[in-house]
Design goal:
The complex is a heterodimer. By secondary structure, chain A is an all-beta fold. Helix content of chain A is 0%, strand content 48%. By secondary structure, chain B is mainly beta. Chain B is built from no helices and eleven strands. In chain B, the strands form two sheets. In chain B, strands 2, 4, 5, 9, 10 and 11 form a six-stranded mixed sheet that branches. A five-stranded antiparallel sheet of chain B has the order 1-3-8-7-6, with no helix packed on it. The N and C termini of chain B lie far apart (41 Å). Classes of the chains: A mainly beta, B mainly beta. The interface between A and B is medium-sized, with 27 and 27 residues.
Amino acid sequence: EAEVAQSPRYKITEKSQAVAFWCDPISGHATLYWYRQILGQGPELLVQFQDESVVDDSQLPKDRFSAERLKGVDSTLKIQPAELGDSAMYLCASSLGSGAKNIQYFGAGTRLSVL
Amino acid sequence: KNQVEQSPQSLIILEGKNCTLQCNYTVSPFSNLRWYKQDTGRGPVSLTIMTFSENTKSNGRYTATLDADTKQSSLHITASQLSDSASYICVVSDTSSGGSYIPTFGRGTSLIVHP
């Protein structure tokens, strides 16, 4: 069964360092999402792509976070510089489209610890 | 601001018992409501999805209901199993002006099933 691939699974970094996460969606999925999930809370949408275009990035802290999906397939989320409060699980999800009944399929996530 | 509230925050039941999880939302304009199951350290997995015209949807032992008038949903789990131990997340999407469906996640209900 096709899955959303994310790497790395775990990342430990020191504050002020740069980190990057990678996501490869299910083949053919046009819509890609990045979420941040703090322990004990639900995921928070950071950015949504439709193909290579950003549909919504209103919750993305643009002073330190950036996301790209240059060819409309895989995507990278970057944080520079990382802060202690960035410690969380970063989830990537994809769906065939952004229509009402499109199911989002989630990857296993990247757990970030900022020391 | 769109909000999704879930209750209870956590729940402990004995194997074989039934339970019901609640979700109240203030998302507008409403597009769809989904329930996800998230095992510890994993990404969420879709259980059910309902649009405005649907008031019940089943997936095996999981049955979701939707009352669009009161803006409430419930997830009923029948004959619980140890593998049902997980976080259950309610997600409500609105219809943005651009035609996309922006999700708002609840914080989840943590369910523990004891033998």
